Structure prediction request, 100 residues.
Amino acid sequence: MKVAVIGDPDFTLGFRLVGIRDVYEVGNDEELVEAVRNVLDRKDVGVVVIKYEDLRKLPPVLRREIDERVEPTFVAVGGVGAVEELRDKIRRALGVDLWK
Prediction:
């Protein structure tokens, strides 16, 4: 499975430097939604890295679809709520709170 990255050029630069090739650079909210939909349609992507702020910008219906799917798994980085959201995903998937 591949790792994909969605974000603005400043966010994606480091991922490109480490060799991730599936990078979707976005400049506005419409491009962001289009990139997320494209990644959801791909069968070869297992993990999607996205900024927490960008994830919060997505329409509620699309966020719900992301939350309900097993693959690809969206990992939000940065921001205050990213850790809590990841914690909640792990708790729902495993049935155990690993932080306790």
Q: What stands out?
A: Strands lie at 2-7, 22-25, 45-51, 73-77. The chain has one domain: 2-94. The longest strand covers residues 45-51.
